[in-house]
Design a protein that fits this description.
304 residues, mainly alpha, 13 helices, globular
Length: 304
């Protein structure tokens, strides 16, 4: 008996948001060692947007959006890609990619807290347990000696935390904002406008613009993977899953990605994984599980 086509697509989509998104921390770490971070992000998203627009045109999608939808996409793109991703990549110069992924895994905790503040929704007991575990886990993670006494690492930790706030705010904004009904088109506009904003910021801050032809083969290959798989395939898979399965199941990527990033960082870059990091990871991810396991999240039909 053959497996239904939809089942195969769902499995492949989950593989994409688990493994591909988990590997983007490593890929960004490889490229940012020789390419300015904001310049890196601008190339990634601008190129990806051009490819997405081409695909959307080929599939005969309607690319026209209203002025309000365009402005909302610009703001969402800023929260997600300019600040949330651009600053995150910059911070990877000061912290390990696996650590960055672990700190980013507190996003569900931040979203829950913001929903409490914005909507006044009551937080369930299991969610309180999850938040407590998350705080304990983060304390264990950042209190390690090799991080606590390095000023640059502390700066990286703080900036990544602000990126988590930006992503969380963006998630709440997109859920309420007026956007195109086509998530693929929204993603294209968000990436295009974000790529332009990142280019302006990169130029204004005086980053060195090194032509991709002068990058090392590993950086070129990593950027190619980021554009094709991290920016196009994974985002498409994510939005496809939001239409086919519950958002609660899709959100499990929040606690699979850090595990993938830690393993790849250790295997490829020889990044250290301490016993305390493993314990902190377990506690953080258990906290995220507690929060997601008791709520049925409303599917979002917009692109990220």
């Amino acid at each position: 008996m053959s497996v239904p086509r939809k089942t195969v697509l769902i499995i492949l989509a989950f593989f994409a948001i688990y493994v591909i998104w988990g590997s983007t921390y490593l890929l960004n770490k490889i490229v940012v060692t020789e390419v300015a971070p904001l310049y890196l992000a601008s190339i990634r998203f601008t190129t990806a947007s051009i490819l997405i627009f081409a695909i959307a045109k080929f599939l005969k999608f309607n690319l026209k959006i209203s002025k309000r939808q365009f402005l909302n996409n610009i703001f969402a793109g800023f929260l997600f890609l300019v600040y949330g991703n651009g600053v995150f990549v910059w911070a990877l110069k000061y912290v390990d990619s696996g650590f960055g992924a672990l700190e980013a895994s507190i996003q569900p905790l931040m979203v829950l807290a913001m929903m409490r503040l914005v909507d006044g929704k009551k937080i369930k007991t299991t969610s309180i347990i999850g938040i407590s575990l998350g705080i304990i886990g983060m304390f264990l993670l950042v209190s390690q000696q090799q991080l606590s006494f390095q000023e640059n690492s502390f700066i990286g930790i703080i900036m990544i935390f602000t990126c988590v706030i930006s992503w969380s705010w963006g998630s709440l904004f997109v859920a309420r904002a007026e956007l195109s009904p086509n998530y693929f088109v929204n993603t294209a506009y968000q990436m295009l406008t974000s790529g332009i904003m990142l280019s302006i910021l990169s130029f204004g801050l005086g980053e060195t613009w090194l032509s991709p032809v002068h990058w090392s083969p590993s950086a070129q290959f990593s950027m190619l993977l980021l554009i094709v798989f991290g920016s196009i395939v994974a985002f498409t898979a994510f939005n496809y899953l939001l239409k086919e399965v519950s958002t609660e199941k899709v959100s499990t990527s929040a606690y699979v990605n850090p595990v993938i990033a830690l393993i790849l960082g250790w295997y490829v870059l020889d990044e250290q994984i301490t016993g305390q990091s493993i314990l902190a990871a377990f506690i953080i991810l258990t906290g995220v599980y507690f929060i997601n396991s008791n709520r049925t999240l409303r599917p979002r039909m917009h692109g990220r």
